[in-house]
C-alpha cells in the first residue's frame, strides 16, 4: 500500500485548535507548515507551554500510537498545515518496516531528550541563563514568537523576562535586531 492513500492534508489558521486535552486521534500528525504550541493549564488557569513544534515534526505521536487521550492541548501559533496519516493502517502496513519504525523511535527519543534537558535546565538555571539558552537554540522561534510567549515557554512571568532581557542588553550579551533579540557574538 502507498502511504499517500492513507494521508490527508489539513490547513489551519493562526489560533486554530489542533486538539484539546482529553481528545483522541485516529491519525498521526505531521506538521508541514507553521508553528504549533502544545500546552496545559495549571490549577489557576495559567497556560503552561510544553513545547513549540515546527515543520516536519510529528506531534503527540506517543498518545496517538498508544491510542490514549491527549495529555495536553495544541494550537497553531501561525497559519499552517499538517498531514494526517490514518494510524490503524499505518501501524498494520508501515510500522513493521525497520526504517519507518526507526524514524518514529527517533522522534520519540528526541522528545524524551528535550524533556530531560528542559527539566535539568529549569532546575539548574536562573532567568538570564534560560533566556540566553533560548536565543542560542531557537533563533527562528525568537523571531516568530511574541515576548510573552517566550516568557511562558521559559516558565517565567513577562515582567521577569523583560527585566532580565534589559540586563542582558546592558551586559551586551543580547542585542536587539528590529523587533527581536539575538545573542551578541561580538562579546
Q: Could you please describe the fold and organization of this structure?
A:
The chain is an alpha+beta fold and 187 residues long. The chain folds into two domains: 3-122, Jelly Rolls, CATH 2.60.120; 126-183, Winged helix-like DNA-binding domain superfamily/Winged helix DNA-binding domain (Arc Repressor Mutant, subunit A, Orthogonal Bundle), CATH 1.10.10.10. The protein has seven helices and ten strands. The chain has helices at residues 61-66, 87-93, 98-124, 127-137, 139-144, 147-153, 158-170, and strands spanning 7-12, 17-19, 27-33, 36-41, 47-53, 58-59, 73-76, 80-86, 174-177, 180-183. Helix 4 packs across helix 7. The longest helix has 27 residues, at 98-124. The radius of gyration is 18 Å and the shape is elongated.
Using brief descriptors, characterize the structure shown.
four-stranded antiparallel β-sheet; single chain; 41% helix; 27% strand; Arc Repressor Mutant, subunit A; elongated; Jelly Rolls; 10 strands; alpha+beta; 187 residues
CATH names the topology of the largest domain as Jelly Rolls
Which strands sit side by side, in order, in the main sheet? 1-8-3-6
Distance between the termini: 56 Å
Number of strands: 10
Number of helices: 7
The appropriate CATH architecture of the largest domain is Sandwich
Give the overall average pLDDT: 88
Binned, the helix content reads 40-55%
**CATH superfamily assignment of the largest domain?**
Jelly Rolls
SSE topology string: EEEEEEHEEHHHHHHEE
Beta fraction of the residues? Answer: 25-35%
The structural class is: alpha+beta
Biggest sheet record: 4 strands, antiparallel
> What is the total domain count?
2
Global Rg: 18 Å
User: Which consecutive residue ranges, at least 5 long each, have pLDDT under 50?
Assistant: none
Query: Shape, please?
Result: elongated
CATH class of the largest domain: Mainly Beta
* Oligomerization status of the protein chains: single chain
Amino acid at each position: 500500500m502507498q502511504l499517500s492513500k492513507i494521508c490527508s492534508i489539513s490547513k489551519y489558521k493562526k489560533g486554530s485548535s489542533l486538539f484539546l486535552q482529553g481528545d483522541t486521534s485516529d491519525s498521526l500528525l505531521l506538521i508541514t507548515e507553521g508553528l504549533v504550541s502544545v500546552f496545559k493549564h495549571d490549577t489557576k488557569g495559567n497556560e503552561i507551554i510544553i513545547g513549540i513544534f515546527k515543520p516536519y515534526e510529528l506531534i503527540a505521536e506517543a498518545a496517538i500510537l498508544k491510542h490514549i487521550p491527549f495529555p495536553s492541548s495544541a494550537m497553531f501559533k501561525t497559519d499552517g498545515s499538517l498531514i494526517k496519516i490514518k494510524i490503524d493502517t499505518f501501524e498494520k502496513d508501515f510500522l513493521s518496516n525497520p526504517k519507518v519504525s526507526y524514524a518514529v523511535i527517533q522522534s520519540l527519543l528526541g522528545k524524551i531528550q528535550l524533556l530531560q534537558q528542559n527539566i535539568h535546565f529549569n532546575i539548574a538555571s536562573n532567568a538570564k541563563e534560560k533566556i540566553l539558552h533560548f536565543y542560542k537554540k531557537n533563533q527562528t522561534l525568537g523571531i516568530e514568537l511574541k515576548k510573552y510567549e517566550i516568557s511562558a515557554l521559559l516558565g517565567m512571568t513577562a515582567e521577569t523576562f523583560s527585566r532580565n532581557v534589559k540586563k542582558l542588553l546592558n551586559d551586551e550579551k543580547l542585542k536587539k535586531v528590529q523587533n527581536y533579540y539575538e545573542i551578541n557574538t561580538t562579546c
